[in-house]
Amino acid sequence: MITFEQAVAKALSYDARINKFAEYESSFEFWWDCGVDSVGPQPSIIMKESGERFLFSDAIFNGYRCGKFIREGEIPEAMRPSFFSLRDAVYGAAVGDALGVPYEFRERDSFECGGMVSGGAHGQPTGTFSDDTSMMLATCDSIRDCGRVDVRDMRRRFVSWLREGAYTPDGSVFDVGNTVATALTDGRGCGGERSNGNGSLMRIAPLAYTHASDEEIRAVSAITHAHRISTESCVCFVKLIQNLVGGSPLDLALKHSISGGEEFAFLADVASWPREKVRSGGYVLDTLGAAIWCFANTDTYAECVLAAVNLGYDTDTTACVAGALAGAVYGYRAIPKEWLDTLRGKDVIERCLFPGFEKARNWPK
User: Fold this and answer.
1) How do strand 83-84 and strand 359-360 relate by DSSP bridges?
2) DSSP secondary structure string, 332-353?
3) What is the Cα–Cα distance from 231 to 9, expressed in whole angstroms?
4) Taking the model in full, what pTM does it have?
5) DSSP labels for 250-293?
6) Quick one: which H or E segment has residue 37?
7) Tens digits of per-residue pLDDT, 279-297?
8) Domains observed in the chain
9) Are 63 and 187 in contact (CB under 8 A)?
């Protein structure tokens, strides 16, 4: 194992312009993860201004020759930044999903969810997530394995979930939507106007942690939900997560996320709606609007997902989508520990996570 100083000395001498080494010592301080690549030392650095993490060589290739980089070892443990990551959104979604499963189909205000319970229409043990999270994990696993968005591979994994119980806590599949089942059985997405359930929105959040284009997001939705309203809802949600994680306030994030078309115009104002106006059924725009409303009208992860479940009806999916949004913004550490401890299938989740982009939440003053 080489020392930090040796790694920096080696990295400092590299100049991508002439494929040889040069001095940038006056511009940078460095963070190194003590890893050694098979072809030599690979120091990593964190840009203080943006919180982004790069291999040193990538930073030089991209022209990052000014600004300040931080060496983690020089920051006291209690002051080190946490990072926005895929784990935030996936666990946020899974916990919200599991909270909502026991209350699915129940009318608003006929119950009050305050935490993890068992039972309900599906009779599942406490902490069990549904098809929403399973399909999200299949999406993650495909990206992890392929290193890119591969629609054919994702479809194959969705079929494995449906037929074999893959990506579930115990091999048991329940609560499969009609559009999802039809699309996976027929081998093509459903494009009719009546096929705009929330079955692609519920699984799309991981694409916010990739460089997927709008067309790739639409293609992932169209594996099952191919109508424009569904595909554009997915594009909107991915952009919304990215904009919020990027530091935009909700109103500005929505402005730069909402897709064209009159069907989506209400999303700009949904945060100010009274609760009785918010719909929480299975229609994709209802779910997207309800998730935004819950996030906008609460201040913590727990408040957001409980508000989503307590809207009633499609409780698991509303809380899954709202949970992905709140998890992405508030972070994994904001999810109540007792809920995480109760959540089933965490080993399945951990196997499927891929290393997406990371951005620092807070820097020490």
Assistant:
1) antiparallel
2) GGGS-HHHHHH-S-HHHHHHH-
3) 49
4) 0.80
5) HHHHHHTTPPSSGGGGGGGTGGGS-GGG---SSBHHHHHHHHHH
6) strand 36-37
7) 999 999 999 999 999 999 9
8) 4-80 (no CATH), 84-360 (1.10.4080.10)
9) no
